[in-house]
Write a structure and sequence with these properties.
Elements: E1 5-13, H1 18-31, E2 35-40, E3 44-46, E4 57-66, H2 70-83, E5 100-106, E6 111-113, E7 116-118, H3 127-136, E8 141-142, E9 146-147, H4 148-153, E10 161-162
Antiparallel strand pairs: 1-4, 1-5, 2-4, 3-4, 3-10, 6-7, 8-9
EC number: 2.7.6.3
Protein name: 2-amino-4-hydroxy-6-hydroxymethyldihydropteridine pyrophosphokinase
Pathway: Cofactor biosynthesis; tetrahydrofolate biosynthesis; 2-amino-4-hydroxy-6-hydroxymethyl-7,8-dihydropteridine diphosphate from 7,8-dihydroneopterin triphosphate: step 4/4
Length: 164
């Protein structure tokens, strides 16, 4: 068996019971063989990004140690999305979604393959991911972009609300 890899997963939803969808996805990750949930952020309400005429999102980040390959982890994330009612083929880019799971980081690996780019190519630009990521990994440094805290200092985060 290979040594576990630390991975970070972004979670978001804005259709139906979005907070429940995100919590259920985190529970599924925690229960999966080959994954150990190390940390998870609280839930955050964030304004829609891209297509802004849609409901606010509920976002979170989970940190896992996994023995799954990056591709197998991606397939698991896609299965969880499908089970939550997501149909990627029928939705518009940056539109509303029942559940969105993104593999943000997979150890220190760089992967550029069809359907899988790690680190996530827009991670450093998105406050809705960086805020929950900074909560659980405040000292994390994004290769080529610097510390998360410095990235957050350069972007607006005032419209992101932690849910208690």
């Amino acid at each position: 068996m290979s040594a576990p890899v630390r991975a970070y997963i972004g979670l978001g939803a804005n259709l139906g019971e979005a907070a429940c969808s995100v919590e259920n996805a985190i529970a599924r990750l925690a229960a999966k063989a080959g994954l150990a949930l190390v940390a998870r952020s609280q839930l955050y309400r964030t304004p829609a990004w891209g297509v802004i005429e849609q409901p606010d999102f509920i976002n979170a980040v989970a940190c896992v140690d996994t023995t799954l390959s990056a591709n197998d982890l991606l397939y698991l994330l896609l299965d969880i999305e499908r089970d939550a009612g997501r149909d990627r083929a029928a939705e518009r880019r940056w539109g509303p979604r029942a559940l969105d799971l993104d593999l943000l980081l997979y150890g220190d690996r760089r992967i550029d393959a069809p359907g899988l780019r790690v680190p996530h190519p827009h991670l450093h630009e998105r406050a809705f991911v960086l805020v929950p990521l900074a909560e659980i990994a405040p000292r994390l440094v994004l290769d080529g972009h610097g510390p998360i805290a410095a990235l957050l200092d350069r972007m607006a985060t005032g419209d992101i609300e932690a849910l208690r």
